[in-house]
TrEMBL record:
One of its GO terms (biological process) is carbohydrate derivative metabolic process. The keyword Transcription applies. Keywords: DNA-binding, Transcription, Transcription regulation. PROSITE patterns: HTH_RPIR, SIS. InterPro entries: Homeodomain-like_sf (IPR009057), HTH_RpiR (IPR000281), RpiR-like (IPR047640), RpiR-like_SIS (IPR035472), SIS_dom (IPR001347), SIS_dom_sf (IPR046348), WH-like_DNA-bd_sf (IPR036388). It comes from the Bacteria. CDD domains: SIS_RpiR. GO terms for molecular function: carbohydrate derivative binding; DNA binding; DNA-binding transcription factor activity. The lineage of its organism: Bacteria, Pseudomonadati, Pseudomonadota, Alphaproteobacteria, Rhodobacterales. Residues 8-84 form the HTH rpiR-type domain. Residues 134-272 form the SIS domain. PANTHER family: GLUCOKINASE, RPIR-FAMILY TRANSCRIPTIONAL REGULATOR. The keyword Methyltransferase does not apply. This is Putative HTH-type transcriptional regulator YbbH.
Length: 295
């Protein structure tokens, strides 16, 4: 979905039908969801080969979501390429110059390029209304639990820390000595879970989202594919781009999205939030938590 101007309706429809497809058609659909830019420039055989399925499987997938065939399905993706955003020649030249600047220049250029691309692709697939609706749900929740494990643990905890400067019922899980499922044991339909995981998906996060769904919690999910199990279970799903030339996934777009989501929560919240934040920081100053230069 990210990186194209294709109407999200088409890809959302495909993601919504995912569980109804045959295993082979699901493989084709998952490839399209994760590589939408390939569709506009690839034949049915090329897509089938990339998805490791037969061409007629790709055709059946297209028909499943309301198109007459693959060419009909591909046309909106071709339109997106023709009508898409302009390239950035100045930035391209800058990156090329960096790549020639020494042994590590190429790595530096690749990292910079991926950071900027990840941000652009993530936010290209998310509308202001998507953010507003999720933010309103967060503000209306009795308690908000944020879940990330591994590299995403610190991301989830940072979001919780920032939110806690103005709101009191934000809880990062798993708590020390606990498990995500234990931490959600008494949560119900009045509560919300914000969960983050990217491929390979962490089983404890998927399990916690399943439990949250069973308990009627509202779910906000951040993951790297529309086919992600937590996106498919979420009430509010956000696909993030995490590409990097390194062995680890990039966290930049996840952090940026969570910071933006928090800003939306504050924007839709009651007028008391700015006062709470001001009181919070005033107390920290009074307690001497901030360094002050001698005058």
């Amino acid at each position: 979905m990210n990186g194209t101007n294709v109407s999200n309706t088409i890809l959302d429809r495909l993601a919504g039908e995912l569980s109804e497809l045959t295993p082979e058609a699901r493989k084709a659909a998952t490839y399209v969801l994760e590589n939408p830019r390939d569709v506009g420039v690839s034949t049915v055989r090329e897509i089938a080969q990339a998805a490791n399925v037969k061409p007629n499987t790709v055709v059946r997938m297209a028909r499943q979501v309301g198109f007459e065939g693959y060419e009909d399905f591909r046309e909106p993706f071709r339109d997106a390429i023709r009508n898409g955003a302009a390239d950035f020649p100045d930035r391209a030249r800058w990156l090329q110059d960096i790549s020639k600047s020494g042994d590590l220049g190429g790595l530096y250029a690749d990292m910079v390029r991926d950071v900027m691309t990840n941000i652009e692709e993530t936010f290209a697939g998310i509308s202001t209304e998507d953010m507003k609706v999720a933010a309103e749900a967060i503000w209306d929740a009795r308690r908000v639990f944020t879940l990330g494990v591994g590299v995403n643990n610190s991301v989830a905890r940072n979001f919780t820390y920032l939110a806690s400067t103005g709101m009191t019922e934000f809880h990062a899980i798993p708590r020390p000595g606990s498990t995500p499922v234990d931490d959600l044991a008494w949560a119900d339909g009045n509560d919300m879970l914000i969960a983050v995981t990217c491929k390979p998906y962490r089983s404890e996060v998927v399990e916690a989202v399943e439990i949250a769904q069973e308990q009627g919690m509202t779910i906000v999910a951040l993951s790297d594919s529309p086919a992600s199990p937590i996106i498919r279970m979420a009430d509010h799903g956000f696909v993030v781009s995490v590409e990097t030339p390194q062995f680890f996934p990039s966290s930049v777009s996840i952090i940026a999205l969570l910071e933006t989501l928090l800003s939306f929560v504050i924007a839709v919240a009651s007028d008391e939030i700015p006062e709470r934040v001001e009181t919070f920081h005033k107390r920290r100053h009074q307690l001497g938590l901030y360094h002050q230069e001698d005058t």
